[in-house]
Amino acid sequence: ELFILKVSRKNLKPGTRLGKVGFTDCTTRTRFLFSTDDSRLAVETEGILTVKREVVLHEGNRNFLVHAWDSQGQKMTLPVRLLYQDHHYMNNRLDAEFHHEAHKLSNQLHDHLDSDNNQQIPILDFPKSNPGLKRRKRDWIIPPINIPENSRGPFPRFVAEIRSNKDKVKKIHYSITGPGADQPPVNLFTMNRDTGHLHVTQELDREKVDKYMVIHSVAEGGDGKAEEPMDVIINIIDQNDNKPVFSLPAYNGEVPEVSQKGFQVIQVVATDADEPNTDNSAIQYRIVSQEPEEPGPSMFTINPNTGVIRVKEVGLDREKVPQYTLEVQAADMKGEGLTGFTKVIIKVTDLNDHAPVFTGPFYTATVEENKVDALVVKMLVTDGDEPHTAAWNAKFKIIDGNKENLFSMKTGTNKQEGIITTAKGLDFERTSKHTLVVSVVNEAPFAPSVSLVTSTATVVVTVEDVNEPLMFDPKEKHVSKSEGLDLNSTVVWYTASDPDTGRKQKVMYKILNDPAGWLDIDKDSGVITVRNQMDRESIFVKEDKYTALIGAYDDDQIQATATGTLVIHLQDVNDNPPTIEERKFTVCSKIPVPQLLTVTDRDGPGFTSPYNVSLVGSVKANWTARMISTRTGIILTLNSELEIGDYTVTMSIADNQGLSQVSTVTARVCDCTGEDVSCRDKDVGGSNPPVILGILKAIVVLLIMLGLPLFLFVRRRRAEEKPVELKDLNMADDMLILLIWSAKTSSRQYES
């Protein structure tokens, strides 16, 4: 119920192995998933308990739990106690009766556990029985049985004799069950039912199964009374039957030339399938051979325990020996047992011990002005280091003459070519020649053991003059003018400049876009004047702004090479009188409802409301007009009952500056009362227009039917060059006159 691990120290350092817990789920599995509730400890899959972080047993002991899971996923828990006891006390407690067996078990544990640094390994402590072995409902216990692997027989081979102390007085029958007995692998172990002799029937392999647990049963003859079964543990003892195997058949490493002693090159790793933490799997490495043996036979050394290969001697030179091949051996039994081999190919990499050099010290180039990303020159270099390495690849830099960053420098794809291009457009009028100084280095720094000089070259760039386009300054010019500016008055002087100052060219102007046709420009001076009266209320004016496009060209060019935008902010003048929006309305002759008329003015603020209204002429006798409280609308009222029909009401409306105009509205008076405005057809015009229109249409159709044949007849006679009689012509003329009269009469009647 409690597994006690005894230690001889209170301070347990990380890496200390405390002991091993055993677990079986009655299968052939040898590794299980363990865990512990103490984060300072760890349990490996073999059951080995190890200290992860330092543990101090202040009170001399510490309890914790170890959990394991069987093949069915069920969790089992074992309480464990770390118990501190003095080493001498522990040894003295061993009963003399069991001292030999305890010593043998201790040696077995030492085979499984690492004893580095002389750390204390616990000894399984058998409890005392007085007298003899302690009984657990039986008279005897069975210690673990050890069988070496790879035994060649003959088989079956005797392993052990397990007998009861009662077989001298009674007939006893023995049997075993479990994996290796009556479960797969079946009959690997057999037992003589009469003698209790245990046999193994074939060769064992620890690397497949390292331990078997069978159940030993005893039955008494005669009455058949059986004792309680007991577990028998059969340990398979490891033999050194597996040689070390490298993780790779060959390794590849690199080392820079002229590397110093101790430089790490590569690490090789080999593994051994024999039992871990024993001499059978304890691997050590050594270098067997080196090819070529130049400048010495031992240029490299290997750590026998880790497999790390380092430089042993100075003098590595890529130009003399570019590559070494090492044969490396791994041997178990700490270097004295079975061996495995691998090859290590070490490439000596180049150091930057040669500086790149320009093929020429001086370069010249010509570039047109204003061109961006134009190729200026390509500059070649040579380098004595290994091609296409960081020690050979070149890097270029403009170190003088590029303060304004007019040029850019990059390395070509072949890594041995410097390319200069223009980062900005060059200006011939400003500077016609540029002198650049370029340096070149490698991607890798120069080797400190070599004294190298950085190569430089001079590049003279001549700027070629071109006829550059003109430029308006500013690109968009804003002016503010009154919309009432007189004709031929100056709006603005808008000119362009010529960057080609040395050419002395004449600049001329023209208007490219003038939507309303209001402007004119002097082609020589660029003075813009008013050609037609401007109007802020025009459809071409947006948000009080009128836009025109001006062009400029020099005497070498026909088309405009520069454009400028002129934006005129038009200041409003009171040039639009107010008007009435509603031009027609209908009103009842009896108890008429006053009519609200909306007044608008196209002018801007300051030239609109408040408005004034007055009736004009004889309409004053029947109508009254007044402004609403905001003085932005008119209330027109019929004061007397009028005959039904259409009437024209004339009014004069003035803005706040007194600018006025006479406006008329048409009022249709109907035979109705108040707000119930409804006009019947007979209320207006005194007759039925649809009936009249129907009659007129019938007359027109009749006249067409009568006149069209005569008209066609006259045309045919003329086409045949036959004389047309007078009566035919008179009839045709009469028909044509009648058709015209009918159409006019119909139109007038329709309008009424």
Automatic annotation (TrEMBL):
Main location: membrane
Record GO biological process: adherens junction organization; calcium-dependent cell-cell adhesion via plasma membrane cell adhesion molecules; cell migration involved in gastrulation; cell morphogenesis; cell-cell adhesion mediated by cadherin; cell-cell junction assembly; convergent extension involved in gastrulation; ectoderm development
PROSITE patterns tied to this protein: CADHERIN_1, CADHERIN_2
Record-given protein name: EP-cadherin-like
Keyword annotations of the record: Calcium, Cell adhesion, Cell membrane, Cytoplasm, Glycoprotein, Membrane, Metal-binding, Repeat, Signal, Transmembrane, Transmembrane helix
Residue intervals of the Cadherin domain: 139-246, 247-358, 359-471, 473-580, 579-692
Subcellular location(s) per record: Cell membrane; Cytoplasm
Presence of the UniProt keyword Transmembrane helix in the record: yes
GO cellular component, one term: adherens junction
InterPro entries in alphabetical order: Cadherin (IPR039808), Cadherin-like_dom (IPR002126), Cadherin-like_sf (IPR015919), Cadherin_CS (IPR020894), Cadherin_pro_dom (IPR014868)
Top-level division of the source organism's lineage: Eukaryota
Coiled coil segments of this chain: none
Chain ranges passing through the membrane: 691-714
Gene Ontology molecular-function annotations: beta-catenin binding; cadherin binding; calcium ion binding
